[in-house]
Amino acid sequence: MTEKTTVFHTKRRAFIIMPDVGLLVAQKKFDISHKQMLENMGLSTTSVSNFLTICPRGYFMDGELCIYQGYDMTPGAKWALTDDGKKIVQQYSADLRVIFNLNDQTCVYTGVIVGKIGDVWKKINMVRLKTLENQNIVM
Q: Is this prediction's pTM over 0.85?
């Protein structure tokens, strides 16, 4: 890992939302990727890949929440919440509020654009937490 990546991972607080199970939240100042979090739990490579593709995950840093889904590592690929992912986030928003001390006006980015490994990737699709919680998502 590059020094820039280490600083980013240490500064942010990573989490993974596991539908119908709960939240996996990294320790504060813990230099670890989402992939490493799942590997440390003993999951197989296939399971890790499936979780990273399906489960909403993200991080809290500098008063903002960034949540996304995806695992295509091609630079320029967009990882964004699906409608199912948004519904899952809505189910866990009360927990996210407590864990990260969020309020209605907290900026939530619901996607990122994949960049080079070691770089901080661009956040996209900003909404306020209250807006995300109140979205009527039709399936």
A: yes
